[in-house]
Write a structure and sequence with these properties.
Chain lengths: 136, 210
């Protein structure tokens, strides 16, 4: 979803920036599910997909997985360096639905395109594990 | 109530650095509030700050450097009357320029604010590349700084750090530049001292005094 952000940064060779954000609910995960591995892989795949789709600059990809009581956050600024995480991933119970906030700030791609890429990456990462997701 | 405005491009390390600064200031007995303005409706940084048990106010739906600058003024006034912090750290969005925020604060002064300091955070790993394609924004962020932190020296190649420091120095002559790893408290002591002082209400050495 585009957020209708009205700020216009100074003109640049990088082109336009359309912020994209989404909140999804993830269904219960199977035992042994690696939270940080999943989140870093998600951001890495999404950044690579954005670059392949023509993003001129990867600004910042961020996510926050929360159960209400505990949370883990990860972010990525380049595919070269990959994603990093903080928080207490082990404290997020995965035997029940959890919420995942995702923010994607890249130059040169419309928010609608990023939405399609994000849905594709979530499908490809979660479907093989049998984890359902839905946007809220 | 002192104000630390933290600017810098998307992903430059503002949130990580603020977490460290806020922890240090809190441990030194200062009451700290964080105001965060993110690009986009889905805010992540506010959640990260709350995870660190910080007093957080989120300003969304625009940029505090332009169309919702007045929201920052109202937030600061509310904090001054309610939480009464010694230090307010404002995290600007990654596409904000310090000048835009400071102009608003000049136009609508907040009486409780006794000093304002602007920190610009620069990502060593990609400063040169970003400067090349986002020149006006990057240069405006550097130009508005009282202090500059070059971050991610733990992830950057030595040549990248060297280039970032050289370019930043050329763009902002005379402005103190600190090379830090925001995740390592040991590398932050000098910067922390310059930015937040070490006692409640104590003003740092540089910045604008109201």
């Amino acid at each position: 979803m585009s957020d209708g952000h009205q700020h216009t940064p100074p003109p640049s060779a990088a082109g336009f920036l359309e912020p994209f954000g989404m909140r999804v609910t993830l269904g219960p995960a199977p035992g042994g599910f690696g939270t940080e591995d999943f989140l870093t892989g998600l951001l890495q795949d999404l950044a690579a997909a954005c670059e392949a789709a023509g993003a001129t600059v990867i600004g910042h990809l961020k996510c926050f997985l929360s159960s209400g009581e505990a949370g883990v956050h990860c972010n990525l600024t380049s595919t070269r360096l990959g994603a990093r995480c903080g928080g207490a991933s082990g404290a997020v119970p995965l035997d029940r639905p959890v919420e995942l906030d995702l923010a994607v700030l890249v130059y040169g791609l419309p928010a609608a395109t990023i939405a399609t890429l994000a849905a594709g990456v979530l499908d490809s990462r979660l479907f093989p594990l049998g984890i359902a997701w839905r946007q809220v | 109530m002192r104000l630390l405005l933290v600017t810098g491009f998307l992903g430059s390390g503002k949130t990580t650095l603020i977490l460290s600064l806020a922890r240090t200031a809190t441990e030194a007995g200062q009451r700290v509030a964080v105001v965060v303005n993110e690009v986009g409706e889905v805010g992540i940084d506010g959640s990260v700050f709350r995870l660190g048990d910080l007093e957080v106010t989120e300003i969304t739906a625009g940029c505090i450097c332009c169309q919702i600058g007045v929201d920052l003024v109202l937030t600061l006034r509310a904090l001054a009357e309610g939480f009464r912090p010694h230090l307010v750290i404002v995290e600007a969005s990654g596409i904000a320029t310090p000048a835009g925020v400071l102009e608003t604060l000049d136009r609508y002064p907040v009486e409780a604010v006794t000093a304002t300091l602007t920190l610009t955070v620069v990502d060593a790993t990609r400063f040169e590349a970003l400067h090349e394609v986002l020149t006006p924004l990057i240069e405006a962020q550097i130009a508005g700084a009282d202090v500059i932190a070059v971050t991610k020296h733990d992830q950057a190649a030595p040549a990248e750090v060297e280039t970032a420091v050289r370019l930043v120095g050329a763009l902002a002559p005379g402005v103190p530049v600190h090379v830090v790893d925001a995740t390592a408290a040991g590398s932050l002591s000098e910067l922390t001292s310059a930015l937040i002082g070490d006692a409640p209400g104590k003003a740092p050495a540089t910045g604008r005094t109201q």
